[in-house]
Design brief:
The chain is built from eight helices and no strands. The protein is an all-alpha fold and about 270 residues long. The N terminus and C terminus are likely disordered.
């Protein structure tokens, strides 16, 4: 579970803002307003690109890979790339950006939304993993599992995501955890969360390439429509990843602390 808002020095930030002159405070608020406007514009573009990626994968499977179903091994597999794209790319990205997008909501509500979205991602990933595994064992002859680099990276990505989810739930959702512990673990939680997202996109791009090579074989080098469309999916995924990482790492787009977040002079973070 990713919580992409660094909580360190929140008390200091609040005190500094209170001690500013009226003019300086207005300047800061004006800059924040401009940053929010820029973020909103880029976020809209990010949403368009993300939805375009999901619908493009759907189009690819429907028009080139035979559609969806549960009767044939090849058709069962087609659920795998679509569900992984929705869960591990689109929903994962929106969860990462959730704090900065809905900056006026209460922090505890944002945490709950964050956890719920990640729970949905886990469900979709489990279904996608089942689709891949089932398609291999039901093939005639059966196809071996977990031999490719794509599958290995997939296992690493899923394992890291589950670790992030569990550690994040215990650290930031479970009551009674010391504020010092939350503050110490936050930078690592943020870093590995963003790294996990990048790894998910890289694994997906590798998966697109692997599927094209297996499906098209020697025809791939002749620039077939499906091959070029599959390459477009990879490029679109990378572009989307770049947008998300930029939005979540730019300091100016960070959600500012709210009084209702419960920041106390004792140093409590919740």
């Amino acid at each position: 579970m990713v919580a992409p808002e660094l909580e360190s020095n929140r008390v200091e930030e609040a005190i500094t803002l209170n001690n500013m002159t009226e003019q300086n405070r207005n300047n800061v608020l004006s800059k924040n307003f401009n940053h929010v406007g820029a973020y909103s514009s880029l976020y809209t573009i990010c949403q368009i690109v993300g939805l375009l990626l999901v619908f493009s994968v759907f189009y690819w499977i429907l028009n080139f890979r035979g559609g969806f179903g549960f009767t044939e091994a090849k058709i069962i597999f087609n659920w795998h790339p679509l569900l992984m794209t929705i869960g591990f790319i689109y929903l994962f990205a929106n969860s990462i950006l959730h704090y900065r997008t809905f900056r006026n909501c209460k922090k505890r509500d944002l945490k709950n939304h964050h956890a719920i979205i990640h729970g949905c991602v886990i469900v979709l990933v489990i279904l996608a993993g089942w689709a891949s595994y089932a398609s291999h064992i039901y093939s005639n002859p059966p196809i071996p599992n977990f031999y490719s680099l794509h599958s290995w990276l997939g296992i690493v990505t899923i394992s890291m995501f589950l670790s992030q989810f569990i550690s994040g739930f215990v650290s930031f959702m479970y009551p009674g955890i010391a504020a010092q512990y939350k503050e110490a673990i936050m930078p690592y939680h943020v870093f590995f969360g963003i790294f996990n997202f990048i790894l998910a996109v890289a694994t997906s791009v590798l998966g697109f390439s692997e599927k094209l090579i297996f499906a098209l074989d020697r025809e791939y080098k002749n620039f077939p429509k499906e091959g070029m469309f599959g390459n477009f999916l990879g490029l679109l995924s990378i572009f989307y990843c770049g947008l998300v990482v930029y939005l979540v790492t730019k300091p100016e787009y960070k959600r500012q602390p709210k009084p209702e977040d419960g920041v106390l002079l004792t140093g409590a973070l919740e």
